Amino acid sequence: MCAVYTNQVNNAVKILKKKPILHSMNPHNMKEIIQSVTKLGEILECKEKAKEVTDSLEKRITNIIEVKKQKKPKVLAIEWVEPFFTAGHWVPEMIEIAGGINLVSKKEEHSRRFSIEEIIESEPEIIILMPCGFDTQRTLLEYNKILKNNKIWNSLSAVKNGKVFAVDANSFFSKPSIRTIEGIKILAKIIQPTEFNELEVPIDAFTQIGNN
After folding, report:
1. 47-65 vs 180-191: helix axis angle to the nearest 10?
2. What is the CATH number of domain 1-212?
3. How does pLDDT run across 167-198, given as a tens digit for each residue?
4. If DSSP codes are grouped into helix, strand and coil, which group holds residue 31?
């Protein structure tokens, strides 16, 4: 759904006349995502450039962490809506860095299926929809088709308060690339809007879904 299997890549390479170097990356947290840049720098013999990139990424993360947050709201990130799947791996850590309290999922764990009952019990103040591989507009389409008229969903406090957001998961959350650092900025804008009011993020990176 989000990425091809390594054996599929290996099979594809077999039919090529010129064999490329294959390097499979499988980070599970922000530290490992940044370390993958260092590894690529070694493979490509661009260690100095890799160091420049990693220093910049770490500084951008530190800048967000160091901003004082008055209150940390409870945040639920959802990776799939029918059925519901948690957003695992690096996303819980991204939420914490951005100034939220992550719910249901755990850092570095795989995404898993969960129920509407778990959502109700967790009492999220903010819900962020990030279906794997979808951009913001596609996520809105899925929301309108599946959740918009769901009575149980609409009974949630976050929904009643208009605190549901759709993000561009395909660009900033689904893949363990350096664009996840931009994803942290997007989450900061959503979770701590006052503190990060001046923070600039890409157009269409996220949208707020109004209540019914």
Report:
1. 10
2. 3.40.50.1980
3. 999 999 999 999 999 999 999 999 999 999 99
4. helix
* 106: region left, alpha or beta (phi > 0 left; psi from -120 to 50 alpha): beta
- The rounded distance, in Å, linking the Cα atoms of 27 and 178 is 11
Integer Cα distance of 96 and 98 in angstroms:
5
pLDDT of residue 2: 55
Structure token pair of residue 174: 């689904």
Q: How far is CA 70 from CA 67, 99, 183, 194, 201, in A?
A: 10, 9, 21, 10, 22
pLDDT digits (tens, 9 = 90+) for 124-167: 999 999 999 999 999 999 999 999 999 999 999 999 999 999 99
CA distances 88 to 62, 94, 96, 102, 118, Å, are: 22, 10, 13, 10, 15
- Taking residue 8's Cβ as centre, other Cβ atoms within 10 Å add up to 10
Instruction: Estimate to the nearest angstrom the gap between the alpha carbon of 141 and the chain centroid.
Output: 19
pTM over 0.85: yes
Report the distance separating Cα 190 and Cα 95, nearest Å: 10
Q: ∠101-125-176 over CA atoms, to 5°?
A: 50
Beta bridge pairs of residue 209:
164
